[in-house]
Amino acid sequence: VLGIYSRENGQGMLFPEEEEPTPPEDSGPEDTPPSSGRPSLKVVK
């Protein structure tokens, strides 16, 4: 998306172009559990 403009009055804004993100450095194994292929959700009340 480069910008957003209103149909009613033509007002809007442009967003600055983003630079290419640098790939994250591989800092070793992460603390995330291995994926079992199925998402898991927990009910919080």
Automatic annotation (TrEMBL):
Q: Which SUPFAM superfamilies match?
A: SspB-like
Q: Does the keyword Repressor apply?
A: no
**InterPro entries under this entry?**
SspB-like_sf
The annotated region (Disordered) lies at 1-45
Q: Name one GO biological process term.
A: proteolysis
Which domain of life does the protein's organism represent?
A: Bacteria
GO molecular-function annotation terms?
peptidase activity
Q: Where is the composition biased (Acidic residues)?
A: 16-29
Q: Mind listing the UniProt keywords for this protein, alphabetically?
A: Hydrolase, Protease
Kindly provide the name given to this protein in its UniProt entry.
ClpXP protease specificity-enhancing factor
Q: Which organism is it from?
A: Thiolapillus brandeum
